[in-house]
Amino acid sequence: MLIDFHTHTNASDGELAPAVLIARAREAGIAALAITDHDTLAGYHAAQTADLSGIELVPGVEISCVWGGTTIHVVGLGFDPAAPAMVAILQRLTLARNERAVKISERLGARNIPGALEGAQAIAGDSQIGRPHFAQWMVAQGHVSSMNSAFDKYLGQGKIGDVKTFWPTLESAVTTIVESGGMAILAHPLKYKFTRMKLNALCQDFKALGGVALEILNGRQTDDETARLKQLAGQCGLQASAGSDFHRDWQYGAALGVEAAIAGDMPAVWETLL
Ligand code: AMP
Ligand code: MN
Ligand code: MN
Ligand code: MN
């Protein structure tokens, strides 16, 4: 069975409209899908008018939060999309993203890159604004040669554009998902570039706060990484989740769909969700 519990649409920083993503998922033979846009359910709601035949669409979101000074992503699955706690945190996060965009622009301005706010806003349009929109604008303006270099030099973890002042805590993100009737999943644990000890501490904290799973697979990764993440999940008493983290067709990116058998004999969130 093919599933995919981590995907993006153009409601945040993905390229495809929700209906197009769902059509693509169907072509790929995916049985169950979650649209997990950054801090918004707009893509999930828009998908309700698409042809959903043959696909189980699970409510999803990827919440930005902060733990120990680092931005962490928590995926929520299977919650009530109308839950007041969820609606409220996403409203706050949209405001936070808009305030953050102003701050990022100020910081880029101080580095002789003026006009970034207007530029990124024009690219984002109605989508939830994020660093990728700044990166796209910086490439278009010739400030950097690629999105990657925009992140490496200005926007990535620890760089001037990595503004996390406005995010809720990890506790708040997890609690909101749980209160809304959903499962909280620690997204892409290896992307934070933590030491083993720190990653272990994050997983223990996450579990203690009410988190239920971690992504044993996110996008493209090696078998060694998957083995390491399965072991970590086991140590922390967390279940398995998995997804492509699809944003767009990209040479180095993962295609839609993950074989559910990847979890082996580990408990997996899809056993509860489906
Ligand atoms: P934000 O949600 O605004 O904090 O931006 C984070 C997003 O930027 C991630 O979800 C990725 O989609 C994207 N991203 C992170 N690193 C890179 C990179 N090196 N190149 C392109 N996109 C990236
Ligand atoms: Mn993204
Ligand atoms: Mn993420
Ligand atoms: Mn993602």
Present the secondary structure layout.
Elements: E1 2-4, H1 18-27, E2 30-34, H2 42-47, E3 56-58, E4 60-67, E5 70-77, H3 84-109, H4 116-124, H5 131-140, H6 147-155, H7 170-179, E6 183-186, H8 196-209, E7 213-218, H9 223-236, E8 239-243, E9 258-259, H10 269-273
The structure holds adenosine monophosphate and manganese (II) ion (3 copies).
One manganese (II) ion binds at residues 62, 73, 187-188.
In words, what does this structure look like?
The protein has 274 residues and is an alpha/beta fold. The chain has a domain at 2-77 and 185-273: Alpha-Beta Barrel (TIM Barrel), CATH 3.20.20.140. 41% of the residues lie in helices and 16% in strands. The strands form two sheets. It has a five-stranded mixed sheet. Strands 3-2-1-9 form a four-stranded mixed sheet, covered by helices on one side. The longest helix is centred in the middle third of the chain and has 26 residues, at 84-109. It is globular, with a radius of gyration of 18 Å. The model has no long low-confidence stretch (mean pLDDT 97). Bound molecules: adenosine monophosphate and manganese (II) ion (MN) (3 copies). One manganese (II) ion binds next to loops.
